[in-house]
Amino acid sequence: MQTLKKLNQLLSRRDKALLFWLLLFSILISLVEMVGIGAIMPFVSVASDFSQIQSNRYLHTLYTFFDFARPLDFVVAFGVALVLFYIFRAVLNLLYFYALNRFAQGRYHLLAYRLFENYMGMEYKSFINKNTSHLLKNIINEATNLVQLISAALFMMSEIFVLILIYGMLIYVNWKMTLLLTLFLGINLILLKLFVSTKIKKAGEERESFQQRFYEVMNKSFGNFKIIKLKAQEQYLLNQFAESSYGFAEANIKNHTLAQFPRLFLEMIGFSLVAIIVVYLVLRYQTDIQAALPVLMVFVVGLYRLMPSVNRIFTSYNQILFYNRSLHIIHNELIYEPEEVGEEPLVFEKAIRLEHISFAYEEEKPVLKNINLTIHKGEKIGFIGESGSGKSTLVDIIIGLYRPLNGTVYVDEIPLEAKNLKSWRKKIGYIPQSVYLFDGTVAENVAFGDEIDRQKVKSVLAKANILEFLESHQDGIDTRVGEGGIKLSGGQKQRIAIARALYDDPEVLVLDEATSALDNETEAKVMDAIYAISQEKTLIVIAHRLSTLDRCQKVYRLENGEIK
User: Fold this and answer.
1) Alpha carbon 195 to chain centroid, angstroms
2) Angle formed by the axes of helices 175-192 and 143-173, to 10°?
């Protein structure tokens, strides 16, 4: 029930409408299956005894209505009709399975998009507590696994209808034999659930755990490749990878092997039952079973169709158990409310004012305490202090990434609120300490999702004092930077980050320890470029070294979350 409840919460109204039509389709398929099996008995009866045409009023009605000249023609026509019916049945089943798969597989796009949308809409404070390898795993693997679960649930639903109708028909033909059959199959299904399903569920939990470690190992290995080479830690990481990869493979081996067991077991039981029924009939009547042949044929065909249905239901149930962890993960990831920010216009012409600002990541562990500060438009200010003093957190509040626990940020005496937060963020140009450049051209990295204006890209690169180098030694703005900007030096990456920050012509430029990893000479050149291009902008600089802030008009020292 918990699984159904979570699925219900994940599916949209349109999804539920499509499910309703699939449900009706599955009922139609079940009726067709029942007719296909039920038609065998009269066909075998009339083929083995033509007198059945006269004694059976339904057959006689058909014989008279179509005006057959002789019984042989009727039997041949009956056989041809059955062949055409089974062709129709096959086509209808194919269409149904296409509809089922289209619905189930189509959910991957929607689930993956909703996850990505949710992560992109997450508050910055929430995002920094996430592991990116987990986010990637959820979008790529867990969403795919959830689709497998949905497919299993749909197939299970369709086969249950088939099972009910065929079972009802067998009861009508011979209820005693059907109840005996049910008792025998029921006991075996309970045994399968106890011994197989439990192991599959455990394998599913192991799969998720090992896959999570699998992504973590790859993420930290590719992200620290240079350090790994220098420390010669390849074997350590290979051992970690082998452990998680082997565990993941073992969990899937268990699942795929155990998934085949019900089919083989049920086939063994089914064919054994046919043999037992034949022996029972021979012993009861002490003669051949010609008289009971039509009934026996119905049970043989019924079992032939029933066994795959029971197997599919059981296999689908086991798949739901195996991938149930994926449903739990995705459900939990999608219940978070995205950050709601508006674009109400916000004008910055005078000053940014912080009034009684307090902030904490955890209760009773304040990071900022009662901060009061005014930054006038066009000012160049700096923040300095030890690591953990609250510098970056304070600036993140100023630029609207964090919301203060207490107090208010004012822009020209207008409170910074959700309704105008997006407008304010667009006025910010941000240059971080660790610059991430994606594997593309310089122009693509500078525009970063915006339409590329080549002249504008060149202009901001020139302001960042890197255009001449790119055009002289590389392919200009079409230079490929490699993943993470691996083909560039630290100073070059910082200059491209400056150009990126300038591309949208921000009113406020923020440097968050952007030059701390550079040598003194490179830092001096980068800071010269920054001060030159920020003459008419408000500049906020976070730094460890006072030399970085020598041209700031005001420098504030933070100690234990307070301005000193």
Assistant:
1) 30
2) 150
Query: What is the phi/psi pair of residue 361, to 5°?
Result: -80, -35
Contact 526, 498 (CB under 8 A): yes
Q: What is the pLDDT of residue 112?
A: 83
- Report d(CA 245, CA 251) in Å as an integer: 10
Length of the chain: 564
Q: Which of 414, 386, 434 is nearest to 543 (CA)?
A: 386
DSSP states along 79-98:
HHHHHHHHHHHHHHHHHHHH
Q: How far is CA 179 from the centre of its chain?
A: 44
Domain topology for 2-334 = ABC transporter transmembrane region fold (1.20.1560)
- Integer-rounded Cα Rg, in Å, for the chain is 36
SS3 at position 374:
strand
**What is the distance between the alpha carbons of residues 45 and 173, in angstroms, rounded to a whole number?**
14
Classify residue 541 as exposed, middle or buried by CB count within 10 Å of its CB (0-12, 13-18, 19+).
buried
Task: Say how far apart CA 413 and CA 3 lie, in whole Å.
Answer: 51
Encoded amino acid at 338, one letter: P
Looking at CATH, the fold of the domain delimited by 351-563 is given as Rossmann fold (3.40.50)
Task: Say how many C-beta atoms besides its own lie within 10 A of residue 478's C-beta.
Answer: 12
The total of other beta-carbon atoms located within 10 Å of residue 227's CB is 10
Provide the residue ranges of all domains of the chain, joining segments of one domain with +.
2-334, 351-563
* pLDDT in the model for residue 374: 92
Provide φ and ψ at 343, rounded to 5°.
Answer: -115, 30
Closest by CA position to 159, among listed 280, 276, 266, 277? 266
CB 542 within 8 A of CB 511: yes
10-residue mean pLDDT profile of the chain (564 residues): values are 70 80 82 75 75 77 80 83 86 85 79 82 78 81 84 79 73 70 72 74 79 74 60 72 81 77 69 69 63 60 65 78 83 76 87 90 82 91 85 88 89 90 88 80 84 88 84 84 80 84 86 72 76 84 80 87 82
pTM, two decimals, is 0.65
User: If phi over 0 gives left and psi between -120 and 50 gives alpha, with beta otherwise, what is residue 439?
Assistant: beta
- Enumerate residues 6+ apart whose C-beta is below 8 A from 396: 124, 402
The answer to whether 36 touches 89, Cβ cutoff 8 Å, is yes
